[in-house]
């Protein structure tokens, strides 16, 4: 019998101000238990709360020891799926989190690097999503709210575990008809994240 491969950790967030039904939660739970490239998907729904989300993520990373971590969040003002390139070391909240906290200009890790890059073939993921008919793009900022906080904490936690692939994808908040397809999009992202060793040299920059 083939040895079992280390699992995939797929995270989503609960509802927060302006997003009463978070698609990232629904998609993570829908893919839980499925197998992708020989790895079982483990879903974790994080609270949209600074610090607590990070602690829950770190505890699960230590217990699960996944080979791929894909964190998902909702980007309500966006029409495309955004594959994030970079996490930055700052919390600067425009609205309060679900615990009523609103940090302004606080480092996530005091003395930590200004930023981490995703360890995912982001161009290949965008290309595969477009091929499957989704609007998708590379994004150069995951914002400065709880999504970026979790993304930075994730890359920081894995800084010495170089073989673990990890990154973040923002999902639009879809009309009901499009919601089911987001599950397919994230499955594609997981397949490419594990199946593509070398990213595509495709243009993915922006000028704004
Ligand atoms: N989106 C928010 C936090 C939780 C979520 O799904 C963000 O983009 O920071």
Written account of the structure:
The chain has one domain (8-195): Aminopeptidase (3-Layer(aba) Sandwich). It is 31% helix and 21% strand. The protein is of the alpha/beta class and 208 residues long. A seven-stranded mixed sheet has the order 2-3-1-4-9-5-8, sandwiched between helices. The longest helix is centred in the last third of the chain and has 20 residues, at 176-195. 42% of the residues are buried. It binds pyroglutamic acid.
Describe the structure concisely for a colleague.
Helix content is 31%, strand content 21%.
Termini separation:
52 Å
Can you say what the CATH homologous superfamily is?
Peptidase C15, pyroglutamyl peptidase I-like
Order of helices and strands: EHEEHEEEEHEHEH
Bound molecules: pyroglutamic acid
How would you state the average pLDDT, rounded?
95
- The quaternary organization reads as single chain
Order of strands across the biggest sheet? 2-3-1-4-9-5-8
**Portion in strands:** 15-25%
Q: Unreliable runs, pLDDT <50, ≥5 residues?
A: none
How much helix, percentage-wise, in residues?
25-40%
User: Largest sheet, described in full?
Assistant: 7 strands, mixed
CATH class: Alpha Beta
